[in-house]
Fold:
Amino acid sequence: MPDLTRKRNIGSLFSLQAPAKSVLCSLLMLVPLLTTLAACGVTNSGGKIQLTLWYWDRSIDDNLIAQVGKVFPNIQLNAQKISDYDNKVRTAMAGHNGVPDILGINSNVATYYPDEDQFYDLRTLGANDVQSQYLPWKWQLGVAPDGKMIAFPMDTGPTALFYRADIFAQAGLPTDPQQVSAQIKTWDDYLQAAQKVKTATNGKSFLIDNITTVYNQMMAQSARQYFDKSGKYIGDQAYMKQIWDEAVKAHQMDVTAKVPMWTTEWNQAVSQGLIASFVGAVWMKQILEEAAPDTKGKWRIAYAPGGAGNNGGSFLAISKYCQYPKEAFEVVKWLQSPQNQLTGYNELQLYPSTPATFDNQSMYKPEAFFGNEDTTPIFSTIVKQVPIFGVSPDDGAAGTGFSDQLSLMEFQNKNPDQAWKDAQAESQRLLTLQ
Structure:
């Protein structure tokens, strides 16, 4: 097996080599450095500290950002809402030019681990003083393998079971969320319920959209992913085969709608009742409401089969190019305080990573789309039960091999045993390209 633990660096993609005595080259290399310093953390004529923030739409409440200058009168925060976010961040980091002082990082935080030298260690700025205010598993995701904390917790993505109560009733299944949670505890329970729904509706409704969802949501519940703490690939071990086999079972039972996520077909399927349930993160509430507005009142949410899981959630980081890291950290800490995470939830449905926020009653209210069910108690319980899990910069490459083969199995009826072997081979091939 090839060595897959080597360290990669974004900046190395744009490294230059030149004769040491080349004055011209030295001057040219100095220009972007001066440009970078001019863009990060300088003070203006009024004596205020200038800080730049990059974020994407709906990742931070704009009203909170607007309050930073009032909370910190000595700081002017220049916030920029960036489209094509990840590509622009990586381009800036690779060129060591124009990198913002504070930047958002999505759930792909592990892909920034190899470039930890481009970030401040937040513990040196006082992060340890507030660690107890955040969920342990979320906090740990911001810590790179070498122990440097590069990312501060923002929102989370606890997962649950979304289901159509009317179709459950048609199949003779319970409809109350507590009763559904009690009856569908395991993924095998879920597959048995899926068979009942298919039979009762003559194949017009399915509890599962596709087998990749089964696989991905089981992975979201697993403390082990594709690599161990040392960076060794473990995606060929028994725990992974067990998750794979559950997806295979769903395929062999023929209880999926065979509709891929993130397609217009998926939107139509949830709107028409072809898809009667799925396991997804809390942020799927908004996606479901927008995809199937005519089904308002028919959906409910229960605990997911298989236990607590998380899918998604963001972070804030401070780049090494920031000249005022302590002041930048005070802004980060304030933006993501328990009180302001409550604002983020109430305004943008960003699920908090601060347990104290769950004590605030403004989080708890009936939701008309879900039959006036208050879904917050379920998600607030789940998010505190998510196991600490490790992530790797190479998770995406490893996972692609599996998802590709699951699709071939579901949509082209590929042999499951051969698909498993090919998933391993394809993952190894993709990893060698990293």
